[in-house]
Amino acid sequence: MNEPATAIEAAVAASPLHQLKDELDIVIPTIRNLDFLEMWRPFLQPYHLIIVQDGDPSKTIKVPNGFDYELYNRNDINRILGPKASCISFKDSACRCFGYMVSKKKYIFTIDDDCFVAKDASGKAINALEQHIKNLLSPSTPFFFNTLYDPFADGADFVRGYPFSLREGVPTAVSHGLWLNIPDYDAPTQLVKPLERNTRFVDAVLTIPKGTLFPMCGMNLAFDRQLIGPAMYFGLMGEGQPIGRYDDMWAGWCIKVICDHLGLGVKTGLPYIYHSKASNPFVNLRKEYKGIYWQEDIIPFFQQVVLPKDSTSVQKCYIELAKQVKEKLGKIDPYFDKLADAMVTWIQAWDGLNPTSASFSNGKTG
Fold first, then answer.
1. Across the chain, how many H-helices and E-strands are there?
2. How far apart are the first and last CA of the chain?
3. Which residues, 6+ apart, have CB-to-CB distance to 118 below 8 Å?
4. CB contact at 8 A, 316 and 310
5. Mean pLDDT of all residues in 130-154
6. Cβ neighbours of residue 356 closer than 8 Å, sequence gap 6 or more
7. Is there a contact between 110 and 176 (Cβ–Cβ < 8 Å)?
8. What domain range includes position 177?
9. What is the pLDDT at residue 273?
10. pLDDT of amino acid 366
11. Is 228 inside a domain boundary?
């Protein structure tokens, strides 16, 4: 980093957003020691970490000194959820959603352990968490596109012709960040572009319009768990399942149709992180190949989903979505019947650990 660590720490401590340290958890899925946190220390150390250990629970995961954290492995998941633990993926980064469930904070920031601090065009280290918080604390504008990007960003506003009746915006439920260096490509694209790197830093945040889906990436993501947490289920992936690497995208499709239904917003763009390690495209292809075929049916399904008016909470929306997944996608493969059942189990487990969360609907408590 260009700046001395002490200067960065001073800037972070002085930030008015620093007060959210008691309202936000950082969730990290991992199979290895978390040495990468040293680079993030100036930005993340004030916050509580929830680490979800994937794979062998007998392996010891080391966390750098000075971080406040709790660590859960597969044995803990089985102990806490009992039979409902079957909905949490094994040997897949989708296990991270267990951290969303056990958190008691209003906001979640999740990051992968191969993501480092990026630098902006001037060479300054990017405080990704601060930008995510800015995104979540400012409204979204899904009903009318603002050509000057996010009108709530510093130095921006609504452009001429933007309806005044829509300028209040809606609560932002999800902040989707991007990545420099290794792009988030599927296996076929990785194979034909093995050396491609993303070097473009675009200083912009967009609200994804209502009715538009997007491929959500879970490696640099923040959300308001009170608004959308019960829908942030990363599916049934990994060991024992016929598909992988679609966990975050599945969650993204689900949260988007629910946000559209409940009048919530999703932002994408800033902040950037530096994605340091490309995964093996041949391994990825084995995990993805069924999903590559299935997505041609899955995406039209989500584009056509209609949720009933009485689905006024995230849980009700999600249970209805599970029902429609079973009815319409179950015809493609028995896996989707299994996934739909897991979606229901996830909601039951969520409500078991978060009994008051069912009162949240449309961003307001009942």
1. 11, 11
2. 46
3. 125, 126, 128, 179, 180, 201, 271, 272, 273, 274
4. yes
5. 97
6. none
7. no
8. 9-353
9. 98
10. 31
11. yes
The reply to whether 360 falls in a domain is: no
- Specify the pLDDT at position 112: 97
Non-local CB neighbours of 21 within 8 Å, separated by 6+ positions: 46, 47, 48
Tokens 């990026």 — which residue? 118
Tokens of 5: 């660590």
Note the pLDDT tens digit of each residue in 34-43. 999 999 999 9
Residue 267 β-bridge partners: 175, 207
Three-class SS state of 155: coil
CA dihedral 275, 252, 136, 102 (to 10 degrees): -90
The pTM for the full model equals 0.93
Here the CATH number for the domain that contains residue 89 is 3.90.550
Query: 269: closest CA among 332, 345, 217?
Result: 217
The total domain count for the chain is: 1
Q: Are 52 and 98 in contact (CB under 8 A)?
A: yes
- Burial (CB < 10 A; 0-12, 13-18, 19+), residue 365, is exposed
Residue 362 in this model has a pLDDT that exceeds 50: no
pLDDT at site 149: 95
- Find the mean pLDDT for residues 161-182: 98
Q: Is the pLDDT of residue 284 over 60?
A: yes
The tokens for 195 are 């050396």
| Overall residue count recorded for the chain in this entry | 366
